[in-house]
Predict the structure.
Amino acid sequence: MSGKTVEDCVNEVNNLADKAGLSREICAYQYRKYKWISTSLSLAILLFSASIAFLSIVDPDILVSLSLPFHSQQDTRNVIAFLGFLIFVISFSDKILNLTVTMNRNEQGVKIFTDFIRDCHTFRDVGSKDCDDISAGLKLESIKEQYSYLNQVMSSNTLFSKTFLKVKKSYKMKTRVSRMLDGDPNISINKYYRMRIWEWLF
């Protein structure tokens, strides 16, 4: 804190806001991923449940006309039992893997980091104007402690190296385009910000 000017403190706060922005992007990526998994599992449960209901009431002759691989009553019972087992496994997997908990935690992480970034920008744009070097240094230390705490809370949010680089690339592209939009709101976003679907898959 000693020896730092207001400008130095503002620069450090900007760096922390940039790091928090990347952390927020990681949380957003994780949230979308787990949201997709959760939605897919829910749709699977819905499909299997509908299949069980259909097989429970359908006339065996209809099954024959549909050219399904099972026709006898025993075969139908076996399929119903298997689908019921799949529903149980899918439902239980959410508890074991903590899919919903992880999804909600990352959603909350997006909100928390957004609030932190907003506080950093408020200090940069407003608070620093009324600070001397000492008060700016104290504010910087407070923001550092807050950032350190947020990192501890979200410390388990890790990614594979390649995935991290893709998320970082996306974040840097967004940041660059955002700054360009501040200068010229008429620029083409697609020209400067383009993350094709296969860039995420390969």
Remarks:
- The chain has eight helices and no strands.
- The CA atoms of residues 162 and 202 lie 9 Å apart.
- The helical segments are 6-57, 60-65, 73-97, 99-125, 133-153, 161-183, 189-192, 197-201.
